[in-house]
Write a structure and sequence with these properties.
Blueprint: E1 4-9, H1 13-25, E2 29-35, H2 39-49, E3 53-55, H3 58-62, E4 69-72, H4 79-88, E5 92-95, H5 103-116, E6 120-122, H6 130-140, E7 147-155, H7 170-173, H8 177-192, E8 198-206, E9 238-245, E10 249-255, E11 264-271, E12 274-279, E13 284-290, E14 293-299, H9 306-320, H10 328-347, E15 351-352
Parallel strand pairs: 1-2, 1-4, 2-3, 4-5, 5-6, 7-10
Antiparallel strand pairs: 7-11, 8-9, 8-15, 9-10, 11-12, 12-13, 13-14
Bound molecules: nicotinamide-adenine-dinucleotide.
């Protein structure tokens, strides 16, 4: 195969900050189409990058036999629709996280991947972070002993993205902080501890602080251009859950908005020999005892562009047919767990898988 020809579908924040620059930096890829239902957004990418054709209907790219692959960077509602259409049209797919709004949609994506044999990777980009891979190696090498519990903490004082827009409208997003932030944390935990299967979950989600959209106060907002004071807020801004797996128990506390002081973003891997606190996409510390003494090991991680690694891995999969760490078969377990948490919260009882 010569240069891999790409269509980027959805030209918003993640496409422009990550997918597009990473394809532009890759030696063996070329972006042929920039697609967005808002024509100015697609056109702006053509102008910024000095290449490609702006389109508003993704089917144009799917009908072009020159196109090898697509990046799906739209809001969550279109993830399964576009990914399935693309695979059926013979294209490889890198679909942003979460795979889909609900587990049934993710299952359908997996089914079509198996039928078509096309690459379907999900944007679980933390699997490409250097610290995450070091922690994973230490756990799988047995350095921590038996890892019996993982505690995930991702709580912020005020960080609701694009309030009133796609992120906070359940029909478009599928949910709030769990599906938007929790997906990365849960997925990297499963990756680090060797992909255990979920057994059961119990959870509760709360929609409290975002419901007063005009009264919501903030300093910074992801995707602020999609904020809509007259829009919808029907998703959770915080979540608590308890997950049993064939490996460790996982507990999580997450919030886009919660009346707490400092933001907390870390994962504790708790083992019999040692424990690790991994700052989200950052450095980590190892804690334990050695020769009768307590010890702490500080590990600083050099900046490495995990998005570039994700895109390079996708291109590698297209070339070789190899199954990489972000394949739908791995990412789908997180969809199952998140669905369980939402169902448990709705029904007020534990969900046994
Ligand atoms: N991997 C990460 O860390 C990460 C970070 C942020 C966002 N995301 C994910 O990326 C996706 C997009 O998020 P964003 O922040 O870029 O949102 P955004 O709103 O900034 O961009 C989405 C774009 O998709 C366009 N769009 C909507 N429907 C379309 C369609 N049918 N065809 C073509 N374009 C369409 C919109 O007009 C918009 O420009 C979400 O699924 C989100 O969860 C991932």
């Amino acid at each position: 195969m010569s240069t891999i020809k790409i269509a980027v579908i959805g030209c918003g924040c993640i496409a422009r900050s990550s997918h597009i620059p990473c394809y532009m930096a890759a030696e063996d890829a070329e972006i042929k189409y920039f697609c967005d239902t808002i024509p100015e957004k697609a056109q702006a990418c053509v102008q910024e990058q000095g290449c490609g054709i702006a389109i508003t209907d993704y089917h144009v790219a799917l009908e072009d036999p020159e196109i090898d692959a697509v990046s799906v960077c739209t809001p969550n509602r279109m993830h399964s629709v576009i990914s399935i259409d693309a695979m059926r049209a013979g294209k490889h797919v890198l679909c942003e996280k979460p795979a889909a709004r609900v587990y049934s949609e993710a299952l359908e994506m997996q089914k079509v991947q198996r039928e078509t044999g096309k690459v379907l990777n999900i944007g679980v980009v933390c699997r490409f972070h250097e610290a995450v891979n070091q922690v994973r190696r230490r756990i799988l090498d047995g350095e921590l002993g038996e890892v019996y519990h993982v505690f995930i903490n991702f709580r912020s004082h005020r960080s609701i993205p694009g309030i009133g827009g796609a992120f906070t409208t359940k029909d478009i997003s599928g949910g709030g902080v769990l599906i938007d932030w929790g997906v990365h944390r849960l997925d990297q935990v499963l990756y680090c501890v060797g992909e255990p299967d979920p057994i059961s979950v119990t959870g509760a989600v709360y929609s409290k602080l975002g419901t007063d959209i005009p009264g919501y106060v903030y300093r910074y907002m992801w995707s602020e251009s999609t904020r809509d004071v007259n829009g919808t807020y029907d998703v959770e801004d915080s979540v608590s859950a308890f997950i049993r797996t064939t490996g460790p128990v996982i507990t999580l506390e997450g919030a886009w908005a919660q009346n707490i002081e400092e933001e907390e973003q870390y994962l504790d891997f708790i083992g019999t020999k040692a424990g690790i606190r991994l700052q989200y996409c950052g450095n980590y510390k190892v804690y334990g005892t050695r020769n009768g003494e307590l010890f702490t090991e500080d590990v600083e991680i050099p900046e490495i562009n995990m998005f570039q690694r994700e895109i390079d891995a996708f291109l590698h999969c297209i070339r070789t047919g190899e199954k990489e760490r972000s394949h739908i078969d791995y990412a789908i377990k997180t969809s199952k767990i998140m669905q369980g948490i939402y169902d448990s919260s709705k029904n007020g009882k534990e969900i046994i898988f």
